[in-house]
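From the shared-data thread, chain only:
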Amino acid sequence: MTSLQALLRLASLRWLGVFVCALATLLSVAGTASALEPAQTKTRVWGFDFAEHNSVGLFGAATSGKHQGNRLARAEEASGSLLAARGARLANDAVVCRGGTCTAERFASGSGVTLDSAGRLQGASVNSAPGAALEQLTSTIPNKQVGVTTVGQIRALGGDVIPSATRKKPFHCTLCSITPQQAEQLFTPTIRNPSVP
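Structure, as tokens:
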């Protein structure tokens, strides 16, 4: 792959992330359920709760149960269920964390981050997952400090958190539609990362 092809691919992925965040924000505005929507049920997969929107469910033949072993092994095993939930809506009480000092400048200058015409973040990296504890969410964060908030606090300011897990980053999500200053207020003061000795 040439440098030009790699750059074009990165640009298209960046715009896709901006589009997904904008779409999620629009959908969250209409967040009240109507009588015409199908009833939701919950499925518990590997210690995480997920909403299902039909009788087939999001996960098909996924197995359930708790995993034993070290936190990185649990993160690796959980990645299949988190990848299945990619793009699924997180509950307001879901914990959200970000490694580092979490200043407005660090949010705005993050890799792949853009600001929309209103000065709101698009594509900022954070970690979150349904029902996950802070210790799980920080297992892939090397920074000595982390900022912590909830999805509900982000949504209260007009933003959202969209799951975008990968195999190596099973808790990765994209933060969008709040300003860098609002993000700093939510994620500071930071605390010691419980996953870094």
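The helical segments are 3-29, 71-84, 104-108, 134-137, 151-156, 180-187.
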